[in-house]
Write a structure and sequence with these properties.
Shape: globular
Largest sheet: 6 strands, parallel
Structural class: alpha/beta
Low-confidence stretches: none
Strand order of the largest sheet: 3-2-1-4-5-6
Mean pLDDT: 97
Order of helices and strands: EHEHHEEHHEHEH
Radius of gyration: 15 Å
Number of strands: 6
Number of helices: 7
Distance between the termini: 38 Å
Amino acid sequence: MRKIVVGVTGASGSLLAIRTLEALRDVADVETHLVMSKEAPRTLELEAPGCTAADLERLADVVYRQENLAAAISSGSFLTAGMIVVPCSMKTASAVAHSYNDNLLARAADVTLKERRPLVLVVRETPLHLGHLRMLVQLAEIGAIILPPIVGFYTRPKTIDDVVNHTVGKALDQLGVEHDLFARWSGA
């Protein structure tokens, strides 16, 4: 069983988090370990009316509280196949870039990097100023995969679900998770 940690921050992009957990739930050999920032439930409430933090938690196999720095995912000895932070706020990206582990989400991401496991950050901010860009370069230099939710127009998206599925699919590709969330490019 592959264990994948899913971090959800308060950045805009709750639909990405929901779809990621739904897609991973459908993969037979994946066990999801969810940790949300304290801001995530409020953003979820604003962006996905009718979907609560409890609903998101029900999509995961294991749920941790962000203040629990003694949780299994805070240790490199807890073997995982990687971690995705979706959406990833600039605050969380900054904490990870600087190993500022004052909550479980940042600590789990830091552990993922130190153990040389894939860490996918679906960063949600635009426009980016020079400080953001330098921080994202620093994250890439220490091993993080920076994957902003950018539309792949070659898939000819018709709905918001199409756009969400493309981003989630690209993120799952980085973790080696097979899916059929979008049509792959096969040439012109």
